[in-house]
Each structure stands twice: as C-alpha cells, then as structure tokens.
Amino acid sequence: MSLIYILVCILLFGFLIAIHEFGHFIVAKSCGVKVNEFSIGMGPLLWHKQGEETQYSLRLLPVGGYCAMEGEDENSSDPRAFGNAAVWKRLLILVAGAAFNFLTGLMIVLILYAGVEQYATTTLSGFMDGFPLQGEEYLMAGDEILAINGRRVLLNGDISTILMLENSETVDVTVRRSGEKRVIEDLPLILREFQVDGETVQRYGLYFTVEQTTPLDRLRIGLYATAGFVRQVFWSFEMLISGTAGLKDLSGPVGIVNTMTEVGQSSPNLVAAAQNILYFGAFVAVNLAVMNLLPLPALDGGRIFFLLLNAVAMALFRRRIPEKFEGAVHLAGLVLLLLLMGVVAVNDIYKIVT
C-alpha cells in the first residue's frame, strides 16, 4: 500500500509542476510567442508529435515538464521570440505558471470543502475543566477570537498554528465580545495538562461552537484556507530568519512525497486518504506559486524583477541591464538553488532513514 501512495504522490507532485509549465505555455501561445517544445515529464523522450511550430513531448520521468520558448535564454531575430515580445506580454507569461499553480490549489480546496456539512467557528463555547483563564478580565464563552498578537485569525485552525508560531508565555488576544472589540493583553494562553476520558492530555483548554455550513460558508472557508497557505509560506520565512526553525526543518520533493505518503497511510480509509493527500497537494501547489514569485535569481520572480528593472532603466536611461550580468546572476542563483535542493534532499533522506 505504501508503494501505491508513493507513486500517487510522485504523480501528483509532477502534475503540479506540469500545470506550472502549462500556464507558461498557454499564455505564451495566447500572446503570440513561439513555443519550440512543450514537454510533460523530464528525461528521455518516450513520444512526441510535431505540431505546426511546437513539438509536444512525453518524457520518461513523471516529475514535471517544461515550456521551451524561442529566445527565452538567448538572443533571437525571430519577431515572435520571447525576448522580443512586449514587456506586458512577457510579464503575463512569467506570472502565468504561478497563477496556474495557485488556481489549481484553490480549486482543489473548494472541491474538498464542497461536501463539508459542519465547521468549527472561532467563537468560544466553553472551556475544559480546570481552565484558569475564565472571567471578565480573561476569556468568556461567546467571545469570537479575531487575532493573536496582531495576526488575524481566519479559521479555527489558525489559533493553534499562531500560538505555536508565537511560542510565547503570554499573548495579546483580540476578541469580539457583545459586539465590541477588546484586546486581552498578556494572556498566558499556553498548553496545559487536562484530564480527558481519564487520560492526561496537553491542550489549550478551549472549546468552540460548531455550525452547519451554507454554500457561502464553504466558499469563504475554502478561500480562507487557501489564503492561509500563502501566510504559512511567509510565516515559515519568519521562523527561519528568527531562528525558530533551521535548515533541518526544510523539506524538498523527497520530504514532500514522504509526508504525503504518511498522510495517506495514517488516514482511516481510502476516501479519507485521497482527500488528505489532495488537501496537502493543494498546500504544495500554493507554496509553489508563492515561492516561484519571490524575487530570487533563477526563479520566475527573479526574471520578473529583472524585467521590471529593465523597463525602468529603459524609461529613465534608455539603456538595458547587460544581458551577461543578468545571465550570470540567474546562473549563480540556479547553482545555489541546486546546492540547497541537494542539501535538503540529503536531509530528507536522513530523516526518513533515522
């Protein structure tokens, strides 16, 4: 069974990368840019068909694909080359890959939430026995939690995520009580020991109201969940910068496939496994979208940065940034990215083995 999950996860991961390249492809075609080859998969060629101008290929390794545009990485005299297209067209083409990933993640989430009948709100219904922070000056049943330490709470799951992220003895909690906003400062809302069914467990001690979902609720929850994926990318960077997380906590394709497999195996049945893997796949899709738009060399965001920088330089000074310099920056970024991916892959394998 684990082998099946691994194969499904690899295909899903490859599908997300292929969707990214398809975004570049379809927008490039729409903008009149010549595409020499569009490939599903990488590595040795299994099948190909030559179109009017584009070769459509199927390759051996199901781990992505690529969209090879004329004049993408070199000068070309072809008027339909990528480098000769208008700035706004090149910008659309570069953004399209991430946009398709984001929309894929959003659609998966909306489909999964379409069948949800109940959801936990962010409004308190009560507290576990022995919870010490009850009362007018603390928390009360009926309080709607709006933010923690200034971080907005969109969904119920955000509460535990933000509390773990803050990792503090006290937090400032913004609630809506009787229709008015109120900030409860320095609230020691931490994990405590409680008795549940005769067992000692670590909990925050909060209970929340559960409501029936309407179609509008399902749409809102899906949108908020997707927005939460975006926030988690930036929260992860915040943790790396602050030292809360380190290089050992990063995961690459190997770690992602392993996590997806664990998610599937820990699910109670195949339907739940499929739903959980798809939900995690949506999270990965949105992560790919955000990461690709960061202004880092060798990524789409880095190319967009230089595209906009060149547009400004041409408008102000009638000169472009030397192509050799831009190429060197992207090459250096690619080398560093590959090195980081190698280190992360080794770390992922080490964590799996140990």
Explain what you see.
About 50% of the residues lie in helices and about 25% in strands. By secondary structure, the protein is of the alpha+beta class. The strands form four sheets. The chain has a four-stranded antiparallel sheet, with helices on one face. It has a two-stranded antiparallel sheet with strand order 1-2. Helix 5 runs parallel beside helix 8 (about 325-354). The two termini are about 20 Å apart. The model has no long low-confidence stretch (mean pLDDT about 90).
Short description:
With 354 residues, the chain is α+β, with helices and mostly antiparallel strands.
Low-confidence stretches: none
Calculate Rg over CA atoms: 24 Å
| Helix-strand makeup class | alpha+beta
Mean pLDDT rating? 88
The description of the largest β-sheet is: 4 strands, antiparallel
Order of helices and strands: HEEHEEEHEEEEEHHHHH
What is the molecular shape?
A: elongated
% residues in beta strands: 15-25%
Order of strands in the sheet with most strands: 5-4-6-7
Determine the number of helices (DSSP H or I, runs of at least 4 residues). 8
How many E-type strands?
10
How helix-rich are the residues, as a percent range? 40-55%
Quaternary: single chain
**N- to C-terminal separation?**
21 Å
List keywords for this structure.
elongated, alpha+beta, two-stranded antiparallel ribbon
What is this structure's SSE topology?
Elements: H1 2-30, E1 35-50, E2 55-69, H2 87-113, E3 118-127, E4 144-148, E5 151-152, H3 156-166, E6 171-177, E7 180-187, E8 192-196, E9 199-203, E10 206-212, H4 215-242, H5 253-265, H6 270-292, H7 300-317, H8 323-353
Antiparallel strand pairs: 1-2, 3-10, 4-5, 4-6, 6-7, 8-9
Helix pairs in contact: 1-2, 1-5, 1-6, 2-4, 2-6, 2-7, 4-6, 5-6, 5-8
